[in-house]
Each structure stands twice: as C-alpha cells, then as structure tokens.
Amino acid sequence: MIPVCRIEDLPIGESVRIEIDEVTPAIAVFHTDEGLYAVDDLCSHQDASLSEGWVEGCFVECPLHAALFDLRTGAPSCLPARRPVRTHEVSVLEGMVHVRPAVREEAVA
C-alpha cells in the first residue's frame, strides 16, 4: 500500500494525483460523497489528467473532451471515451489514505 495523504487533507469533491515511479502510470485519488476511489490518472481517450476533471457523485468528467468515467468501475459512460481506465484499491489506515496499485496486465505478443 502506498500512502497518499491524510484523509482531512482530501476534502469531499477533491482529488489528488500521485506518481509512484517512472514505469507506473500516475493515479488519481478521488474523495466523493460515496467514498474514496482511485483510477489511472490518464484518460483512455486522449492525454488528459482525470485528477483535473470534475467530480459528481461517483463519476469524473475528463477536462479535455467531457468523457465521463465511473470511479467505481473505471468504465466510460459516454463518448468520446470507449475504453475503461484501471481502478485501484483505496483504504484509510489510522487517518492516512493508502492506494494499492492494480497489477499491470502484460501485453501478449
């Protein structure tokens, strides 16, 4: 698990972007009315940071072309995005938000 921030430093409706290393894609962590969620920060449609998008309920709207992603599943709910973004496990331990990055699927040759 990777520590992100203290829960009180991530108000409801806000997000934070974390970078782990040079090979792991950045992750956006969102605090919604329904809970905490984490997805890959990069929109699956085009290069845009989802952590800079708008959160409503359990959805984030991409700031570039308004594609909506369900933070619970990573699935897009409208065009222009067609592919989901990867989701990650989030937990709070002793007031600290942690993320467990999902295992990357290796490309099949």
Automatic annotation (TrEMBL):
Record-linked Gene3D superfamilies: Rieske [2Fe-2S] iron-sulphur domain
Keywords: 2Fe-2S, Dioxygenase, Iron, Iron-sulfur, Metal-binding, Oxidoreductase
Domain of life from the UniProt record: Bacteria
Residue span(s) of domain Rieske: 2-99
SUPFAM superfamilies reported in the protein's UniProt record: ISP domain
MF term (GO), any: dioxygenase activity
InterPro entries, per database record: Rieske_2Fe-2S (IPR017941), Rieske_2Fe-2S_sf (IPR036922)
Designated name of the protein: Bifunctional 3-phenylpropionate/cinnamic acid dioxygenase ferredoxin subunit
Lineage per the UniProt record: Bacteria, Bacillati, Actinomycetota, Actinomycetes, Kitasatosporales
